[in-house]
Amino acid sequence: MEALGIDLKLIIAQLVNFGILLFLLNKFLYKPVINMLDERKNKVEVGIKDAESAKINLENAEGEATKIIAQAKVDASEILKNAHTQALNETSATIKKANDQVDRLIENAKDEAGNMKKKALIEAKSEISGLIGLALDKVISEELSKDQKEKLTAKALSEL
């Protein structure tokens, strides 16, 4: 082989050097790079899983938020309805109370007017009977007895 220019010792030395280089590269470079790539691959997979989990959680949260908003709308509507009903009831009660008060005031005013009317009639009858008595005295020159005056006064009052 020397005739071809190949030195067997040199080839063996190069093979040994290549083996040592391959061993060193494998131990110090290839395995750490592979380990680093595996770790990176695992981190990416975990990141993807976390992203998918976050996406699912977000969708669930959005669905839950939609349900909560819908329930809040129903609750708000119910509260408004109850408030409206309560306001109507309170308004009706206030109006009824006011009407009752007005009715009582009207009744009191009627009673007072009736009492005043009776009092005025009594006073008017008293004055009229006095006037009738005076008129009778002046018209009839002779003196009438007290009983006769009372009978004539009562008759005149009944005709009024």
What's the β-strand tally?
Answer: 0
Structural class: mainly alpha
Query: How much strand?
Result: under 5%
Helical percent range? Answer: over 70%
The description of the largest β-sheet is: none
Shape: rod-shaped
Unreliable residue stretches = none
Strand and helix order: HH
Number of domains as seen in the coordinates:
1
Q: For the residues shown, what is the average pLDDT?
A: 87
**What's the helix count?**
2
Radius of gyration, rounded?
Answer: 62 Å
Give the tags:
single chain, 160 residues, mainly alpha, 91% helix, 0% strand, rod-shaped
Kindly describe this structure.
The chain has about 160 residues and is mainly alpha-helical. The protein has one domain (about 1-160). The chain has 2 helices and no strands. It has helices at about 10-140, 145-160. α1 (about 10-140) packs across α2 (about 145-160). It is rod-shaped. It starts with 7 loop residues before the first helix and ends with a helix.
